[in-house]
Specification:
Largest sheet: 6 strands, mixed
Number of strands: 6
Strand content: 15-25%
Distance between the termini: 40 Å
Number of helices: 5
CATH superfamily: Spore Coat Polysaccharide Biosynthesis Protein SpsA, Chain A
Strand order of the largest sheet: 3-2-1-4-6-5
CATH topology: Spore Coat Polysaccharide Biosynthesis Protein SpsA, Chain A
Length: about 190
């Protein structure tokens, strides 16, 4: 059995929290299932709910059975940045990873995110994000090639809010996301 694994299942990592902003769409259930099916589970998941969907608590219970501390955080605020910020304020782990309610993560997503954050704790880590259907997606990153940037890019910013991770200490140092900027929150 892997250290931290629950019943021989995925390895539970208590040093990372996954934050998911949601507007209560049913696809959130598939997002949570993709996390539960991963090779590594976060010690904590915080779903910041900007809807009134009563099913979200039930969907989170599936993760609680696996040993994950799953929090449902209702919010009357609107906007992705506000939701992410409320999740960051509640997180108490060394690292946080953020995905969107309409994203399905790869089975090794959390393992890879955590490994990159451990290797570069002062960095903001992001990765591949693709459209998963017919709905228009404001930002996709399809490259598989690793890259490191030390300053913003002028033509296209590859940081995706649908797939990013950072040390909680970095968030505290640089500050929370800008809740007033509402034109392209995926690429903030």
């Amino acid at each position: 059995m892997v250290a931290g694994a629950v019943g021989g299942g995925p390895s539970l990592r208590h040093d990372i929290t996954v934050i998911i902003p949601t507007v209560g769409r049913s696809i959130l259930r598939r997002c949570l299932r993709s996390i539960a099916d991963g090779s590594h589970l976060p010690g904590q998941i915080i779903v910041v709910d900007q809807s009134s969907n009563p099913e979200i608590r039930e969907w989170l219970s599936d993760l609680q059975v696996l040993g994950v501390e799953a929090k449902h955080l209702p919010s009357s605020q609107t906007g992705k940045a506000a939701a992410v910020n409320r999740g960051v304020e509640c997180a108490d782990t060394e690292f946080i990873a953020i995905t969107d309610d309409d994203c399905l993560v790869a089975p090794d997503w959390l393992r890879n995110m955590r490994a990159h954050l451990k290797n570069r704790p002062g960095a903001v880590v992001t990765g591949r994000v693709e459209a998963a259907g017919d709905e228009a997606v404001p930002m996709v990153v399809t490259s598989l090639a690793p890259a490191t940037y030390s300053r913003p890019r002028l033509k296209f910013d590859t940081l995706s809010g649908g797939n990013m991770g950072v040390a909680l200490s970095v968030m505290k140092q640089v500050g929370l996301l800008d809740e007033e900027l509402r034109c392209s929150e995926d690429g903030e």
